[in-house]
């Protein structure tokens, strides 16, 4: 926590204080601005006293995701007032609605490709996301599947930020590696959060070519006539370093071939015996037969995962994307 405060929270508080001071000079009678300036000063004082991040009521640590979303928070969730609890519930519900709006359709067919998506958040909001879109007619389908580190509202808001970034940059018609590289620069330079995101970004062309860039994510599985191959990471997670470079890999898919992507909510799902589902199991399942369509592939993975969990509720967001070549 101390390292996070020094590296991220304190600079953010100082920057906000400077901005507030400049605004107050122009509007000295603005009571709300004066109140907010007082809250910032109080937060900086808590940093100096070594009590920042501790609940003012019970003195236990405040939830990290709430501090990252709002560095002025001074009480934990258990000690919010009734009105503050209602406000937090409204914020979470709004964030959940935004996420549902931004998520890719559960099923999509275009340009000889058929995509099936399954999303299962562990809470009201989550850090997983998947988007599929065509920046311009004939440019090919862009897909992004990612997982922002951390949980809760802060991770969800950063996911929304990344979603908008990729949508905006895709209009520049960059190669996939260039798209991820620019998104990384924008994300790292525009947020003070220590969070990062592992993701896979790809472009699906009408000729059956899939260009894929893996930014520190679990390797997608390409299921073809030659068996199962992986697309390993070709760069660091987005948000790690602004100067990171990325490369991509092209794979050719024929009729009946598939790509399977997933987040760690699948591979790290633990049953009652604390045994993880694992990458080997999902790869063995995917290689076990020829799949009629992406829907059949997703259904088989979900069924096998349910068998593994045997009634245990998943503790992390779970996202699966299957892409098939018609």
Describe the structure.
The chain has 326 residues and is an alpha+beta fold. The chain folds into 2 domains: 2-80, DksA, coiled-coil domain (Four Helix Bundle (Hemerythrin (Met), subunit A), Up-down Bundle); 103-325, PPM-type phosphatase domain (Phosphatase 2c, domain 1, 4-Layer Sandwich). The protein has 9 helices and 11 strands. It has helices spanning 2-26, 31-49, 64-69, 82-102, 152-170, 176-190, 264-267, 279-287, 294-309; strands spanning 107-110, 113-120, 128-133, 141-148, 197-204, 209-215, 221-224, 227-230, 249-252, 258-262, 318-325. The protein has a 6-stranded antiparallel sheet. A 5-stranded antiparallel sheet has the order 3-4-5-6-9, with helices on one face. Helix 4 (82-102) packs parallel to helix 5. The radius of gyration is 22 Å and the shape is globular. The chain starts with a helix and ends with a strand.
Mean pLDDT rating: 86
Radius of gyration using CA atoms only: 22 Å
H/I helix tally? 9
Counting structural domains, the number is 2
Order of helices and strands: HHHHEEEEHHEEEEEEHHHE
Low-confidence region ranges: none
The proportion of residues in beta strands is: 15-25%
Major pleated sheet: 6 strands, antiparallel
Termini separation comes to: 50 Å
> Reading side by side through the largest sheet, how are the strands ordered?
1-2-11-10-7-8
Global outline: globular
- Broad structural category: alpha+beta
CATH homology superfamily name of the largest domain: PPM-type phosphatase domain
CATH class designation of the largest domain? Alpha Beta
Q: Residue share in helices?
A: 40-55%
The tally of beta strands, per DSSP, is 11
At the third CATH level, what is the topology name of the largest domain?
A: Phosphatase 2c, domain 1
Q: Any idea what the CATH architecture of the largest domain is? A: 4-Layer Sandwich
């Amino acid at each position: 926590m101390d390292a996070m405060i020094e590296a991220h929270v304190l600079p953010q508080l100082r920057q906000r204080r400077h901005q507030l001071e400049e605004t107050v000079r122009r509007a000295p009678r603005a009571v709300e601005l004066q109140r907010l300036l007082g809250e910032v000063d109080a937060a900086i004082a808590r940093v100096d006293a070594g009590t920042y991040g501790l609940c003012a009521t019970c003195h236990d640590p405040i939830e990290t995701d709430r501090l990252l979303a709002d560095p002025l928070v001074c009480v934990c969730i258990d000690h919010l007032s009734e009105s503050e609890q209602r406000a937090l519930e409204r914020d979470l519900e709004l964030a959940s609605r935004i996420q549902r709006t931004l998520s890719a359709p559960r099923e999509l067919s275009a340009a000889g490709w058929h995509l099936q998506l399954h999303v299962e958040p562990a809470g009201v909001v989550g850090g997983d996301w998947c988007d599929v879109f065509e920046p311009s007619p004939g440019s090919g389908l862009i897909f992004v599947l990612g997982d922002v580190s951390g949980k809760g509202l802060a991770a969800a808001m950063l996911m929304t930020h990344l979603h908008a970034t990729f949508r905006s940059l895709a209009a520049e018609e960059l190669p996939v590696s260039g798209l991820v590289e620019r998104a990384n620069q924008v994300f790292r330079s525009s947020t003070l959060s220590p969070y990062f995101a592992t993701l896979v970004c790809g472009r699906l062309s009408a000729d059956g070519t899939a260009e894929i860039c893996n930014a520190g994510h679990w390797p997608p599985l390409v299921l073809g006539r030659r068996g199962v191959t992986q697309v390993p990471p070709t760069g660091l997670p987005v948000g790690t370093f602004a100067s990171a470079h990325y490369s991509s890999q092209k794979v050719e898919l024929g009729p009946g071939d598939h790509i399977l992507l997933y987040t760690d909510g699948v591979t790290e799902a633990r049953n009652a015996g604390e045994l993880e589902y694992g990458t080997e199991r999902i790869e063995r399942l995917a290689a076990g037969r020829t799949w009629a369509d992406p829907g059949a592939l997703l259904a088989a993975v979900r069924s096998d995962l349910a068998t593994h969990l045997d009634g245990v509720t998943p503790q992390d967001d779970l996202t699966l994307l299957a892409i098939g070549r018609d």
